[in-house]
Design a protein that fits this description.
Elements (H helix, E strand, L loop, with lengths): L1 H24 L17 H7 L2 H14 L2 H6 L1 H10 L24 H20 L7 H6 L1 H30 L15 H21 L2 H5 L2 H10 L4 E5 L9 H5 L5 E2 L4 E2 L9 H5 L5 E5 L7 H22 L24 H7 L5 H4 L6 E3 L12 E3 L13 H5 L10 H4 L2 E8 L5 H4 L6 H5 L5 E5 L5 E5 L9 H5 L8 E11 L20
Antiparallel strand pairs: 1-4, 2-3, 5-6, 7-10, 8-9
């Protein structure tokens, strides 16, 4: 039974982890589309998306079986377990011939509950104060978002460079089945923040197992309040226990005090490693009733869980801003479906899932150019060959936080995320008196039209009511370094007019192609 529990936990964790990391790292876009649902069961995205049904299921799962979520569902937790496998715990060192083990330590309750309280307060009061910083702390502490940034900015580039290496080797053998790829979606700032997160989590995992989960992670701290009173728990049979301490040495959460025969259930992640190590069969994972949580633990659990549940309907119905257009480059162009910049800032935790699956690679992580609150969140960065496809709605389908609400292609075609601004003094028609018209030809909604200028030349004119801000005109403009036509963001997305369909001209005579 003990081996069965651990084997089941590992198998379920792999079922969650590998499809999710493959989905993040897939540069071919061939993975099944339904895999984005793996991200939609992560706790913080569930709260921000207002998915009350999934949240209740996760809370009920924790109440019944303990912190199974942290060992099976959370990808960053599973990554920590994988990193911890590289340690010498349980194996003899070559030089000292000694074994390294985990050791019980008292919990840093002041740290984990302070961080949890601050996150909850920011989420609730940030709504009423219209603050742009309501999810800022979560952006850096949310385990799923950190995993997403690590996957998108470190693992995915490594996979792409591996493909490029294979392509180079194949070319030496006159094999042309592979192709060279260029990484467009990683910035220096996004790489550094992902690297810092990986080093922090990795070092803590190597030295102290799940220390990050039990001292820093707000998700682990919140679920730890519930796991204190979970119905199924690991129990110590004192009549069989010899206080050998083997279970404590094997516990990666370092929550078993073998001297006192006590287990800190708020930190136990139900890895079941201790069950296999106990030689006297004094450890059991079974139904534990009645629940023996202290009154203080109950009060803490009720207060925090009530605050979390109360915040969900508020978070899912964030107020809209006034419908004004901000014509400055200081405003980021947010994806279609995000509705407005403020709402996007409050809901997005920069997991970068949309960035990795944008087929046009127009979504890129921001630095601090849009302010601290928008750091590392995705924005549309138009450049040569990078624009928002007229009918593409992939980012709205896969966003787990509901920061980008799902929209249909027909709605996408009239969603105005920005407006093209034409600067005549930069256009080659004006400066060089050369015919161009590339922006007009590349506009899918007829918002840029060529109108008579002089000496038979035509010059672009933008019809703002038709423009949707897709960036097609900006990407194709040949002027360098500053384009003659640029997309400036709508702080609140508007609805553009539908372009009129051109009437088909009747053919009155046979066409003669000169054959």
């Amino acid at each position: 039974m003990k081996n069965y529990l651990k084997a089941t936990r590992v198998a379920l964790a792999l079922v969650i982890f590998f499809p999710l990391i493959v989905y993040f790292c897939d540069f071919t876009h061939l993975t099944p589309g339904f895999l984005h649902h793996w991200a939609e069961i992560q706790l913080v995205p569930v709260v921000l998306a207002g998915s009350i049904g999934i949240l209740i299921s996760l809370l009920l799962l924790t109440f019944l079986f303990g912190r199974i979520y942290c060992s099976v569902i959370c990808p960053l937790g599973i990554l920590q377990d994988g990193i911890a496998r590289f340690t010498q715990r349980g194996r003899k060192k070559q030089k000292s011939k000694k074994k390294r083990w985990y050791h019980y330590y008292k919990p840093y309750n002041w740290m984990r509950y302070s961080l949890l309280a601050i996150c909850v307060i920011f989420l609730i009061f940030g709504i009423f104060t219209q603050s742009d910083y309501s999810t800022t702390l979560l952006l850096y502490l949310d385990p799923y978002s950190n995993f997403g940034r690590i996957s998108a900015n470190i693992f995915r580039p490594l996979v792409i460079e591996g493909n490029n290496l294979i392509n180079w080797v194949a070319l030496q053998m006159n094999n042309y089945h592979f192709y060279q790829l260029t990484i467009h979606t990683v910035t220096l700032a996004s790489f550094l923040i992902a690297l810092i997160a990986l080093l922090l989590v990795g070092i803590l995992a190597l030295l102290h197992g799940r220390l990050f989960c039990n001292s820093i992670c707000p998700v682990g701290s919140f679920l730890g309040l519930i796991s204190r009173i979970s119905l199924f728990r690991v129990r110590i049979d004192e009549s069989k226990c010899t206080k050998c301490g083997v279970c404590s040495l094997a516990c990666k959460s370092e929550c078993i005090d073998s001297k006192e025969n006590k287990i800190d259930y708020s930190r136990c992640v139900c890895c079941f490693n201790c069950l296999d190590r106990c030689k006297t069969k004094a450890l059991h994972y079974d139904f534990a009733f009645p629940v023996t949580a202290t009154s203080a633990s109950r009060r803490t659990f009720l207060a925090t869980s009530t605050a979390m549940l109360a915040s969900i309907p508020l978070i899912s119905t964030l107020a809209q801003d006034k419908k004004t257009v901000d014509y400055t480059k200081l405003t980021p162009i947010t994806p279609p479906g995000s509705r407005n910049v403020k709402r996007f800032v409050e809901k997005c935790t920069a997991c970068h899932l949309c960035i990795t699956h944008c087929p046009m690679q127009v979504l890129k992580p921001a630095g601090f150019n849009f302010g601290f609150a928008y750091a590392f969140k995705p924005h549309l960065a138009y450049s040569t060959e990078h624009f928002c496809n007229y009918e593409c709605t992939i980012c709205s389908k896969i966003c787990p936080n509901d920061a980008i609400t799902e929209i249909l292609p027909e709605e996408k075609k009239v969603t105005q995320i920005g407006i093209a601004q034409f600067e005549r003094s930069r256009c080659v028609v004006f400066t060089n008196e050369h015919s161009c018209g590339a922006c007009s030809e590349h506009c899918p909604v007829q918002a840029v039209k060529m109108e008579p200028y002089k000496d038979g030349l035509t010059i672009p004119h933008v019809y703002e009511s038709l423009c949707i801000g897709c960036g097609g005109c900006e990407s194709i403009c040949p002027v360098r370094p500053v384009k003659a036509i640029n997309i400036l963001a709508n702080a609140v997305h508007q609805t553009a007019e539908k372009p009129q369909e051109e009437e088909e001209k009747a053919v009155t005579k046979d066409l003669d192609f000169g054959f």
